[in-house]
Amino acid sequence: MTVISSHKDTEALTLTIVAEYDAAPERVWRVWEDPRKLERWWGPPTWPATFEQHDFKAGGRSSYFMTGPDGTKSNGWWEITAIEAPRRLEFDDGFADDKGERNTEMPVIHCAVTLEANGSGTRMTTVNSFESLEQLEKLIEMGMEEGMKLAEGQIDALLAED
After folding, report:
1. Residue 32: which of 83, 105, 77 has the closest Cα?
2. Transmembrane segments in this chain: where (predicted)?
């Protein structure tokens, strides 16, 4: 099983997803670094992502949209705040309008990803931090926890191709 746990902490205002992969951290890092690989797993299988921009460096910005089964598009953006290849990535993740501009009515999530060697594989821990309990509850209600688990579950197939 790829995703081994998820935990919502209402005091720390975090949602943590832990997954394990049968590949070295350097290979797992590539699924974050390469936009063509990233768009094959970022988002649940029924909401595939398309990355229009992916400036993968500290201070860089990414823009993407996910397409639902009925053709509905949901736009998003990242601002990368820290990178230590191939072990740590941090970024702010937010919603955008149809023109790719920030949707200030929706929460911004700070995402911290850690890749650790685990035997011959990698343990990936993704900690999503929220500014308030209301934001955390809103995104959980929108299906974020299940969506992230489904998304990260697609990484094994990508690693099997390399």
Report:
1. 83
2. none
Q: What are the tens digits of pLDDT across the range 52-95?
A: 999 999 999 999 999 999 999 999 999 999 999 999 999 999 99
Burial 9-29 (b: 16+ CB within 10 A, else e): eeeebbbbbbbbbebebebbb
CA dist., res. 64 & res. 52, Å (int): 5
Report the DSSP beta bridge partners of residue 7: 16
The CATH topology of domain 3-160 is Alpha-D-Glucose-1,6-Bisphosphate; Chain A, domain 4 (3.30.530)
Closest alpha carbon to 159 in 50, 46, 24: 24
Mean per-residue pLDDT of the chain: 95
Which helix (DSSP H) or strand (DSSP E) does residue 29 occupy? helix 25-33
Note the maximum CA span of the chain.
45
Q: Is the pLDDT of residue 162 over 90?
A: no
Helix (H, G, I), strand (E, B) or coil at 38: helix
* Helix (H) or strand (E) segment spanning residue 44: none
